[in-house]
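Lab notebook, bench 4. Still working through the backlog of constructs that have no structural model yet. Next entry is a single chain of 334 residues. Request: give me the structure tokens for it.
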Amino acid sequence: MARNALRQLRHRFNRPFMVMFETTLHCNMKCGYCAIWQNQQPEDRAVRERVFARMDEAAEFGVFAWSFSGGEPLMNPHMPDYIEYVARKGFYTSMPTNGLALKKYAESCVKLDQLEVSIDTLDREKFAQRRGIDGLPAILSALDYIKGNLKHNTIQINAAVDLDNLEDLPALAQYCEERGFLLHTEAVHNVVRTTWKTEDVEMRKEELDRVAAFVSELKKQHKCVRFYRDYFKFYRNDGFTKKFPCRSASHLVNMRPDGSIQFPCAFVSLHRGAPEMSLREIYDSPEVRKIIQQSPQMWDFCKGCKIGCPYEVSSYRNSPFTAIRGGLDFLQLS
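Model written out:
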């Protein structure tokens, strides 16, 4: 990490901070507020050696963090090998998962710096309604197994919040506090991809205000609750704008299941660096340099986007004070 910080400093922090590797775009849940399972398509997945090479390249490039994403990451059968390898490279590692296959892969998953498990409510019937799968008992069983049998790092429960499950959060916070887990709440938002049909699940400002006030009070009662005030403000102020542009193209390596690197972000494709090209070759190419130069001016499809990962790297690049406050919230120090 120190070596990569020096590399970043040498390049004036104009290199990518994080890799977001979409290991697969397939998912085994049917969440009502998510379109990914409704848009399943055949996909090519990179061979293990190509992914390992990408991890080596990212380490040499000065990247700090590696996040596995999806779809549901654990639907890629090579995930145990990927976690084992990336854990040895010195990145800060994280992975969100719906938890259905967590017990099967628990021994590998606990090697992540932050394991994120998606649970919106402890009400089994409501969970099944929201997620389309009666999977809550299996997920809780997997977490109990890890807690009772395995040494682990940070475990964070990710709750996608809207007015439907707002009143379920106190019980979820109590559950996390009793087990030493963190609870991260994020308001439901649209995730638009150019090739998808999606439903509008965006929260309106008065709804978001109600959620923010509720979670803010919950944080006062439960120290386990993570509440990113600046992100909620960003959401309420209509997401990315020219005053707060998205920096995904320059600061987030958006890696597709086949190992290609997509620009400007994981959700819209103007250009892809081929799987066999190295990161250095991709980022030095005229096509990518042009996209990075253009990105602060904002394409129409960027305006109003509120997706979390691009926001994180953009906040670090756009505003030092926002980055510091976000870091304090992350460390539970605010």
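Notes after review: Residues 205-221 form the longest helix (17 residues). The beta strands are 18-22, 65-69, 92-97, 114-118, 154-161, 182-187, 225-226, 252-255, 261-264, 269-273. Flag for follow-up if needed.
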